[in-house]
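Entry type: protein chain
Record version: 2
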Amino acid sequence: MTTKIVNWLLLAGLSLILVYFLGSIGCPAYHFLGPMISGVALSLAGRAPRVPGWSFPVAQAFIGALVARGFNHGFWGIMANSWHYLVAGTLWAIMLGAFMSLILLKLKLAHEKSAFWCLSPGGAAIMVIMAHQHGGNMPVVAFAQYFRVLLVSFAAVLISGLFMDAATSTKAAVVLFPPIPWADCGLTLLAMAVGLSLAHLMPFVPGGPLLIPMVLAGISKNYLDHDIFLPPWLLYPSYALMGWRIGLSFTRESLRIVARLVPGLFLGIMGMLAGCGLFGWVMARGVGIEPLTAYLASCPGGLDAVTIIAASSGADLPFITAMQAMRLILVISLGPWFYALLTRIFAPRPKGPPGPRP
């Protein structure tokens, strides 16, 4: 038996064990968290299998369709009535990321051209690419971004578990093979397939494999008047792929490169979580929503991970979707410009003619 097959068996086996264990204790998003922990463990052990490149865009399309479930009349009402909270929360998270990154820079824990890309609250893959374009260190920024997603996911699962009551936790017991409404399921898969094709043809669209299927599924839901349906036996593998994507990003090589950065990075992410949690508390009081919904809407995680956690914890998915989608759009549009500006300010180009070559 080849090493590749053995590694895949280890990853799948450990994931199934953790999924079963976490599900048995009522942990929310256990289908996502178990594979993520398994990916970290096998990657740091040097036994990480290579996940096919096409699988991550497909998983993103499934999460995009899951997000589009919340695109109902309540979603658009939230966008219209609470847009000021959504925009303010996003700008607050961006400023928090910049402030925590500045602390890393002042403590000389990160290089000037990499620091401000390490703690951007969303769009991890996009921030890695933008950091590289502005002279940053891709392995450092990639590790920092996925470390942020990892910690935010753990925190969101923990907070969800604290707020969930016994009645809510029973939602984890779902039917794996339910009766399938073929019209709804077919239209959902068609919107995903067309969205993935457009994302492939338009690679310049940030987050295209998630955003374009999400938009098309939402349009199909509202204008063709059907429900977005994804059977669990299709949806749960996409959760696993998303978890593996995050977990397998933590290689031993990248950990050696950024070992000195980890303590400061951990404190910076905890500061972001605390700051976003404070805004969530303010928003819960101002809008009148449940604390769990406010926290998941404001936490600085990825849209995909937060959506999975929200869907399994009984929170208000339309509100969370509205704020996380707003954050993704603003971070993608404003974040690169803002962090590039900070990079130019704190990492100025050397003045004067270059010195003589040795």
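Comment: Residues 55-346 form one domain.
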